[in-house]
Fold each of these.
Amino acid sequence: MKTAVLVFPGINRERDMARAIKLVSGHEPTMVWHAETALPAGTDLVVLPGGFSYGDYLRCGAIAARAPVMDAVRAYAAGGGLVLGVCNGFQILCESGLLPGVLMRNARLRFICRDVHLRVERSDTPFTRGYNAGQVIRVPVAHGEGNYTADAETLTRLEGEGRVLYRYCAADGSVGDVSNLNGAAASIAGIINDKGNVLGMMPHPENHVETIMGCTDGRGLFAGLFAHFDRAA
Amino acid sequence: MKARVTVTLKSGVLDPQGKAIEGALKSLGIEGVTSVRQGKVFDIEVAATDRVGVEAALKAAADRLLANTVVENYRVEVLG
């Protein structure tokens, strides 16, 4: 089980992510600098953590998406390798073309930093098998640009192909304008690519993995991913 | 050679920043403002004299980095 956590200038959640991975999988991830042109041999999972790569200059994730290491990530994803992007990582995946759409400024313009509820839409993917379909989990968000937008055709395709894995919801699992904190299309919090091996999500599951954090709902995402590898191995 | 790339949001894309600026202009009492859309301007100097080539290079720059064509349009002007 080898995980590579990508590190871009300005990223600040890489250690939270590494800690969560170590805690749940027992394996220490490798930190990979953005200027690298290859991923470590035998990488099972690539993670793009949250933060503010390049200060969010130009557009969030735009400059990181053109970093040398992203060519290696594109090739890795094309070969079916699993890629997880959280928060700025999601923004980078959209900017790099690995996921469709874009993350715009929150509809109500505020930077939002608090716990939210997410509805897990499917449990039959490597990124959600640690949960039950329809399960409501509580994880934190911390972003100013999490308002997911895509053209109507893309949104229809995402819904039709079951590619929305996580959706903002109320504590009872209901979805609506009140629980859609940033104005995202269809309350989308996380999506996968068409091959099902690249997930991007705005909330931070890595920050709810220990009881000292007040909640362990985020563990399921990592536990599910690592269970996926155990089965494959 | 100087050139300018202007990036604007496509029509129909929600522009919360533009809306906030619109509200601020109204609260300043500036009359007649019906809508504000925010964009970006890049003033770029290029060491070349070939107008057509510069325009093509900057279009590539806009497609690859300066604009996200999912939600943005751009315009390239070679200013001479």
Note: Residues 51-66 of chain B form the longest helix (16 residues).
Amino acid sequence: MQSPAELDFESWVCPVPLRETPSVVMGHGGGGAMSGELIEHLFLPAYGAAAAAELGDSAVLSVGGGPRLAFSTDSYVVKPMFFPGGSIGDLAVNGTVNDLAMSGAVPLFLSTAFILQEGTALSELGRIAEALGAAARSAGVRLVTGDTKVVDSASGDGVFINTSGIGMVPDGVDIGPRRARPGDAVLVSGDIGVHGVAVMSCRDGLEFGTTVESDTAALHGLVADMIATGADLHVLRDPTRGGVAASLNEIARASDVGIELVERELPVPETVRDACSLLGLDPLQVANEGKLLAVVPGESADQVLAALRAHPLGRSACRIGTCVPDHAGMVVARTGLGGSRVVGLPIGEQLPRIC
Amino acid sequence: MKYLDEFSDPELAKKLLDQIHAATTRPWAMMEVCGGQTHSIIRHGIDQLLPDGVELIHGPGCPVCVTPLEIIDRALAIAARPGVIFCSFGDMLRVPGSSQDLFSVKSAGGDVRVVYSPLDALKLARENPDREVVFFGIGFETTAPANAMTVYQAKRLGVRNFSLLVSHVLVPPAMSAIMESATCRVQAFLAAGHVCSVMGTAEYPPLAEKYRVPIVVTGFEPLDILEGIRRTVVQLEEGRHEVENAYSRAVREEGNLPAMEMLRDVFDVTDRTWRGIGMIPRSGWRLAPAYAEFDAELRFDVTGIRTAESALCRSGEVLQGLIKPHECAAFGKECTPRNPLGATMVSSEGACAAYHTYRRLELVEAK
């Protein structure tokens, strides 16, 4: 036990767990600050010495000096289960494939675990399974093990899926959340906020007319093309829950750099901007399922962008910012009018505004 | 929506800013009334681009922020009851009552649902005749017409299991209260464009005349706000105090007549407590006697719930423009968007939350 004089208050974290709420609330699953606090204050202390996580999208492991494997797990609880451009089945494959791809890995094997609510129509489950199988075939991954559980009708909400995955990390690839450096370029592979808006557009009570379809896609081919350029890719992130804002904040903190965004360079499609404007949401905090963020040395930015744009899933890739030595751990956007604003880590769930 | 792009064009913004700089010869303090304007000002960094002497004072126009604590506590009490489906707009769910928020009630098993229109709540009531469906009807004149229409429809359709928890507040009496305050520094108002799109501008000339302040009806896009500021500065510099409409694409002088008629039918003007400010006479709406059967406070007998604010929170002074958010000792320490003491730190339209979210860098660098 340290004495107060020995504590480094710069990096000190309040030890009181989850001060504000005695029970789990929806925000704990929102991918923002509340999710982070749950991990930091509840899970990691409980795991103690058993925990060995870099807290990236996947863990890179090697056994007995053998090849490096990427390992990742993710659960899918999306509502509605079918949305424009995809379904929970697509997400369950592409999401975990992308988590593996963000460490540069070639995804190989997935497990599929279903938790089914009693009363779910088998025809719906069949459609989900078909979509999952098609996504796996398309991504070139094998579904090698699985599990099925059923909960009573009061305990579930349709279909929940967990997929875990294993991939192989090529030699010479070292991509991780702590590797961003001042001077690095921040790239995004295409339009942001599309998946979140597609799902919101068919939620009960919203159902706004839109042509937006989810961008759900497996990105490992895109990552392979980026690696093939020979550039030293520092960080890759899959900005799902919490959106670009959450991922960039996590990179800034893990690497202890500032990130400066140029707001006018952000590729926000009109439909996303309009929906966010209507609901009072920030496109930077809206989920994506087929986009990646890349942090690469400034001198490699053009080369990596060219590789991204040559791939069907990266045609609208662009540079959105730069890592800087100032305001370490913070993301700042230069606004279109010339001012600046801090892009914060979302707290919990995004809440539509009243007016 | 190319149409809106044109209202954030940086070239046009620069022209307006140049005109504001050229017109400003001395310091002026103006209040943007609406929280949506505050959010836009901070989000786009507009206040950083104005002449040093032009100060924007953030007004009390965030509906989430000014909903009184006891109404939140009454909402929590109703939402926790078995058999109730409690419906609300999203940003009310994290507003702290005296001990918890609606998210906590939901987590404990309460049926709390985010809806996007009060009519969705009415639909739920018709689909669930064995449940009591309550809609949390808060906000300014902007959200009131839809709530009025919903109660009107409930009565017309005979939906007996629907009720409204009403906490509507009115902008002009609050502007009067601010001008009457002994410590008032406000020399002009950017009036809330969306409120005026419903109510028109007829209520403002008497205020402009009585308090000798320019009132410029202003929108929410960056160019709307800059144009509102430009017109306000010009009036102040010329010693005029008139009502101007700088948001004519949405606001007519007479307002939205059918909406106003609906409001007159369903609501009666009442005294209303504003969170952080206190009671302002005749500054709110309650359901008229003809619609009293749809009043959730009466139906669930929660009018006895009375609660007090955190002693640390100075949101009242923030809402009146007396202090900036970061001048409160609790700002960023005991009070953050993650753990808000007062409602101004909850809603994205709240001045404290806007400062914490978008201006932390400046505040850190200033230390």
Note: Chain B touches chain A through 56 residues (CB under 8 Å).
